[in-house]
Amino acid sequence: MKPKNQPILLKLIQSFFHDRLANQLRASENTVVSYRDTLRMFLLFASDRTGKAPVALDVDDLAVECILAFLNHLENDRGNNARTRNQRLAAIKAFFHYVAFSSPEHVAMCRRVIEIPAKRYCRPMFEHLTKEEVSALQASPDRSTWTGRRDHALLMFMYNTGARVSETTSATADQLHLSRPYQAVLHGKGGKTRIVPLWRETAEVLLQWRDEPCPHQRTRHGFFINAQGEKLTRGGVTHILRMNVEKASEICPSLLGKRVSPHTLRHTTAMHLLMSGADIESIRSWLGHVSLDTTHQYAEADLEMKRKTLEKGGITAPEPAGFAYWQPTDDIMAFLDTL
After folding, report:
1. In angstroms, rounded to a whole number, what is the distance separating the alpha carbons of residues 281 and 287?
2. 78 phi/psi in degrees, rounded to 5
3. Which CATH code is given to the segment(s) 8-114?
4. Pairing between strand 183-187 and 176-177?
5. What percent of the chain has pLDDT over 90?
6. Active-site residue numbers?
7. pTM value > 0.70
8. E-assigned strands of the chain?
9. Domain boundaries, the chain
């Protein structure tokens, strides 16, 4: 009796993660986890939809109609917003790009999947901190304690570099040059490396933290570690930030109404660089953005804030002399004008 062949979908999924993501693209751990979670949810949805066990699903069971139903399920049943929906769709498209390459008989189907458009949505204005709020936040840790000195160094580092939380938690002492020229080497998305200058006061605080005795032996050689000597996790950084924001709000009440996450500090760095006169290309390099369009959003946010400031002050642009709004000339034009 001949052994059963391994299902083609299972082969494609395994090779997508092992060959495409790990070996060819050298995708980050966060990317792999995100893609894994998306495909896991999608396969379970397709299983319920078709009545087949996930292992029995075929590529044809994951047609465009199934994907569109899954995207609706994310928004309507799971309560995901359009941005999360688009992230899940991007992961599915990446997989079907690989399917088209590895399984030519499914090229036509894959092309339809790849053409599914992302959903447009209004981007909220970037939440960022004022310089007074940053100063209050950095002053909030109790530097008479070991954890307080760590938290102070962590907050100084994140604001100075604009580092992503993953770049912060993975930073090691070898990546920091704490004598002139002061600088940090950050390993960002897609394995890309960039060098970010450090301000003198930041370098001095980091140098003190580097030489700080650890209560426990370091086990993972992270620069920012917990009391057990292990490098901080994403959740640990978020917890530290939340505690210090709460403490800083006692002397800076404006922090009470703000949701401050590690990424908020990244936005804050970008906005303060922009307000200080840095050009968009320099900010893009500082933050490690692949596309200049991503960085340009900060310039748009800055213009929007200036517009709102003028409106609050009752300052509006006067309409030019002889200005008149256009009026429709017949019923058809009037109808189109209501759309």
Report:
1. 10
2. -95, -10
3. 1.10.150
4. antiparallel
5. 71
6. 164, 189, 263, 266, 289, 298
7. yes
8. 176-177, 183-187, 193-197
9. 8-114, 131-312
